Amino acid sequence: MFKRLEAAQQPARSAPVEIHVNGQPVQARAGDSVAAALFAAGMDACRDTAVNEVARGPFCMMGVCYDCLVTIDGQPNRQGCMTPVAPGMKIERQLGARKV
């Protein structure tokens, strides 16, 4: 569904970065947000809703909708669209109700 526009990549932002999503290694690019890296890897859902447990994915990509919440390095409720990837980052899908 989503694919990178290779011609639009700037060299400084194109360095590969390995992250782990739900325990699996995923290649991202330096400068990607977590949400963009998930989209580029073919993952369109990053959480399940608290009430109906329906899969949700990033929508606005600018920090307004909160549909991109993920657990990053053990810290829940992080906005994937506002968090840049870092080498070795561990990302997990949030399932059900958020824990506050």
Structural write-up:
This protein is globular. It contains one helix and seven strands; from the N terminus they run E-E-H-E-E-E-E-E. The termini are far apart. The longest helix has 7 residues, at 34-40. The mean pLDDT is 88. It has one domain (16-93): Roll (Ubiquitin-like (UB roll)), CATH 3.10.20. It is mainly beta and 100 residues long.
What is the CATH C level class, in words? Alpha Beta
Q: In terms of per-residue confidence, which ranges show pLDDT below 50 for 5 or more consecutive residues?
A: none
pLDDT average, as an integer? 88
Placed side by side, the strands forming the largest sheet appear as: 2-1-7-5-6
Strand content: 25-35%
SSE sequence, one letter per element:
EEHEEEEE
Count of distinct strands: 7
- The class by helix and strand makeup works out as mainly beta
Percent helix: under 10%
- What form results from the Cα inertia axes? globular
Total domain units: 1
The end-to-end span amounts to: 33 Å
Pfam family, one: Fer2_4
Protein name: (2Fe-2S)-binding protein
GO molecular function: iron-sulfur cluster binding; oxidoreductase activity
Keywords: Oxidoreductase
